[in-house]
Amino acid sequence: MNLNPINTIGNIYNPKENGIGFMRLVLALFVVIQHSFALNNLTDPLTKIGLSSFGSLGVNGFFILSGYLIAASWLNNKSFISFSWRRILRIFPAFWICLLFTSFIIAPIMASIGGNHFDIVFLKQQLSYVYKNLFLIIVQPDIANLSTNYYEHALNGSFWTLSWEFSFYILIAIAGIVGLLNKQKWIFVIIMALYIFSYWASDCKCAIFLKYYVSERIAILPFMFGLGALGYLFKHKIPNSTLLFIVCIIAWVLDIKYNLFIPLHPFFFLYIILWLMVNLPIKSFEKNGDYSYGIYIYHFPIIQLLLLSFNFDLNPWLLSSIAIIPTGILAYLSWHYIERPALSFKKYFKNT
């Protein structure tokens, strides 16, 4: 293995030309596949062979990349106001429009197909769905019990990750303010080590620092996001090796299948993600539009609507293939008419 400093992830990584855009799109499509099976009450194909699930790959990969990019964002712009403003513009405008779309377009169509009556009670639930969920925490997941028969019991089961994502943004900013991302990196390493050890010590793998019990899919998110941030902080120490990449893939498979008590697969997955990020031949895929966020937030209600329209009689692979067409259109519109215009406002706090 070549450990020459010039052959490291950090020295090869180009922030303007890398595989992140393409990877984010693929990870979003993985989540679409997962939900096409889950909402059909079917087992994910990867789960059947003991390899996590498409959804876990998608969400965990997103959080690793997010940790990497958000750590980079802070270190390249060490202003809490400017940093927070950029994060708000990236998450909230598209989320708010999707909330309105789900409440006032998807919900009425689903209600009509299901034979529900529109009345003042339905309208009140539509309005409360928007204002109660306005700040990412999904207090009201449903409208008039439209999603009762679905796996997630929510009109948009993709929203649950967004509040955690934004919380980690704030934690990164706090870590940056107190110097944990530069001069005091070792403290950040210790905090992450403590979290990882507490994760390993939790029998259910569903506790945050052995105290706050959540669910398995939530408890692993700080693990993934934190590793992504560490990946950026130590990118110049991480070798870029095809051999190590192959070893990590094999180790990831074996660890997922056989190591249930002290899981090491997040470390292997981190390296897989970092290697692909700098070695994928598809570079700057998002230069004509970053549609991954739009796909992520719009696909779930589209899948539910399709299932209801076809009386829950759609093969999950066919379902995901059909769903990606309207989802892709909505993602296109979201990027070009909501997300990118919103990001143009980041200049107002550029030097704050």
Q: What would you say this structure looks like, in words?
A:
- With 352 residues, this protein is mainly alpha-helical.
- It contains 13 helices and two strands.
- Strand 1 (207-208) and strand 2 form a beta hairpin.
What is the element string, with H for helices and E for strands? Answer: HHHHHHHHEEHHHHH
Q: Cα-atom Rg, whole angstroms?
A: 21 Å
Give the uncertain stretches in residue-range form.
Answer: none
Please report which band the strand proportion falls in: under 5%, 5-15%, 15-25%, 25-35%, 35-45% or over 45%.
under 5%
Based on Cα principal axes, name the global outline.
globular
Main attributes?
13 helices, 2 strands, two-stranded antiparallel sheet, single chain, 352 residues, mainly alpha
Topology, element by element:
Layout: H1 9-12, H2 20-38, H3 45-48, H4 54-75, H5 80-113, H6 120-132, H7 160-177, H8 185-201, E1 207-208, E2 212-213, H9 216-233, H10 242-258, H11 265-279, H12 292-309, H13 316-343
Antiparallel strand pairs: 1-2
Helix pairs in contact: 2-4, 2-12, 2-13, 4-7, 4-9, 5-6, 5-7, 5-12, 5-13, 8-9, 9-11, 10-11, 12-13
Summarize the structure.
With 352 residues, the chain is an all-alpha fold.
